[in-house]
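User: Can you write out an input/output pair for a complex, sequences first and structure second?

Assistant: Here is one pair. Inputs:
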Amino acid sequence: MQFKGYARPDGRVGTRNYIGVLSTVVCANEVVDRIARSVTGAAAFTHHQGCGQTPVDLERVNRALVGLGRNPNLAGVLLVGLGCEGVAVEEVAEEIRASGKRVECLVIQEEGGQARSVARGHLLAQELVAEASKVQPSPHPISELVLGLKCGASDTTQGLFATPAVGIVSDTVVAAGGTSVLGEVTEFIGAEHILARHARTPEVAERILALVKRMEDRAKAMGCDMRGGQPTGGNIKGGLTTIEEKSLGAIAKAGTAPVEAVYEYGETPTVRGLVVMDSPGREPEILTGLAAAGCNIIAFATGRGAPQGFPFVPVVKITGNIVTWTKLRDHMDCYVGTIMEGTESLPSAGRRLFEELIEYASGRLTKAEISGYSNSMDIYVTGPVI
Amino acid sequence: METKHGIDAVMLTEADNVATALKDLAQGEEARVGVGERTVLVPVRQVIAFGHKLAVTNIRAGGEIRKYGEVIGRATQDIPAGTHAHVHNVESLRGRGDLEAARKTNAV
């Protein structure tokens, strides 16, 4: 099986063919929005970071911007900065250019304000789109898929149908030589020992445990205990018995493949197979992190129905809850409640879901793309805003 | 929800020894438990609420509770097949300060 995608100069393959208008700092968001809104084929990425932060966070923002710019779903990039931000705009541009893409920079203070920046940005974006649209989609092997994994707005059905079905999809992509990226480290708590056992090497296992400890230590520094009180009273009432069970319901979306490597937030995997990336579970940060890691498609398992998408990566919504499937049909893409209804087994639902994912990778629009509910984005930071 | 032609409970893998109820199960009924491509029948010996688990085999006290093919806890008492497996007879093996202390003592 193959998917129809866009070959990029660095050898990676996009499932979409946008040009990205990326804000390097919170202060440039207005200009980015105005430019992207007026140009067909342009996707805006805005966020709340890029200045007044600790060096650790600024480095993370730099890395995320480079990763986003290099994402194969973008054919070209227009970076928009204010001019006095902490992010090193030219360095980010150079690193994105190294992937063979055309990158243009626009600095609001140099252009002479918003109106002039928008005017020139509009023209640059149009040029970039004209070039991008020359690239024709062609068939590519599944090994070129970089699948991002996400779950959220959970209910009882999510861990029983949606995440296990996504786990089968992830295993299928990995078995075909592709890559699957698991984030949401906060969801590992209580089952990190199990995930660590699935690590390819003892070093990878150590890094998984270290990621969870680091996430917990950050919470502890704020006086919060993320482990205590889990599962919650509501979880227990709903039938969840232990923290292991709760966390396994989330980790199930990563299937059964061994974990090959562990990466920092927004870092691009250098190996294929299942990898773990440091990230919290909240939608804007994890979706951005997965996009920065180079994911060209994201599978999002949900119970109660999460509508969020991302500007230039298709986010495929999968639910096993018939009420969500019917009531939120404008936001849901795939249904696996068939397992409960007895018309499909879990393995066959997983196979069908994989085929549907290939359709979405090949250009079928997700509901988030159709509805424009696709601006769930922000860069994850851990330090204070200064 | 209508599950007459579907399954009443689901096991995530063949290695599991508990299944999750997909509807309220009544004592005395035969639950159709889906696992992979198969459906197995398990006599229900206790009321099991939607979303709660029932043992599909006899689990001895101290035995592992397996779901997702992994150990999610340990039985604190015998859990006969068809009965409710939950916080009253299953304990977590994680975040247990008492177990960690005992392990350290044994290590010394």
